[in-house]
Specification:
Elements: E1 3-8, H1 13-27, E2 32-35, E3 42-46, H2 52-60, E4 66-68
Helix pairs in contact: 1-2
Length: 76
């Protein structure tokens, strides 16, 4: 399974609740997490098939944005 990481504007528990149904439909329940304690609000996707475009489009529809993390970015 590949792991994808994105900076996001999903920045609180309420935001996580707002994106749950969308992300569950897009990548599957249990296949994503958001680290709201991280200053970059890291969204992690575990999927063999999900693409950035699919995730981005589904989140954009409900008012959230993601930004691809460069491969040399260190998640802290």
């Amino acid at each position: 399974m590949k792991q994808l990481h994105y900076k996001s504007n999903i920045n609180c528990g309420s935001c996580v609740t707002n994106v749950t149904n969308t992300l569950n439909e897009t990548v599957g329940a249990g296949n994503w997490t958001v680290d709201i304690a991280n200053k970059d609000k890291i969204l992690t996707i575990n999927s063999e098939t999900a693409t950035k475009e699919q995730v981005e489009q589904s989140l954009n529809k409900i008012g959230y944005r993601i930004e691809e993390i460069e491969s040399n970015f260190q998640i802290k």
